[in-house]
Design a protein that fits this description.
Layout (H helix, E strand, L loop, with lengths): L1 H8 L5 H16 L4 H35 L2 H12 L25
Length: 108
């Protein structure tokens, strides 16, 4: 039985192996630059880069809207479509489809 235990414990008698194991455990779990912290930081970087792309697209969309509104025709079109404004000699007809009308609850 003593030989059996000695056979399994023999690699752990090597000081270099013990130092390597302790160093590996320290670097993975306890160090300020551990693997877990790096993983969390990389995840946060990925999220921030995705957010950066989203805001770049929003900026491009807003710049396009500003460009469209820079002339009088664009402002007039926005006023007509969104705010239902009209000229003095015009009438506005709003056409709504069944699927665009909000449904009322019958329980009330």
């Amino acid at each position: 039985m003593a030989k059996l235990n000695s056979k399994y414990l023999k690699p752990f008698k090597n000081i270099f192996l013990l130092i390597f194991i302790v160093f590996t455990i320290w670097m993975l779990f306890f160090d300020a630059n551990s693997w877990f912290i790096h993983h969390e930081l990389n995840t946060e970087i990925d999220e921030l880069e995705a957010e950066k792309e989203y805001y770049k697209k929003e900026i491009e969309k807003d710049q396009k809207a500003i460009k469209e509104l820079s002339n009088e025709e664009g402002v007039e079109r926005l006023a007509r479509e969104k705010y239902y404004m009209k000229k003095d000699n015009e009438d506005i007809f709003i056409i709504e489809y069944e699927d665009s009308i909000p449904k009322e609850d019958k329980n009330d």
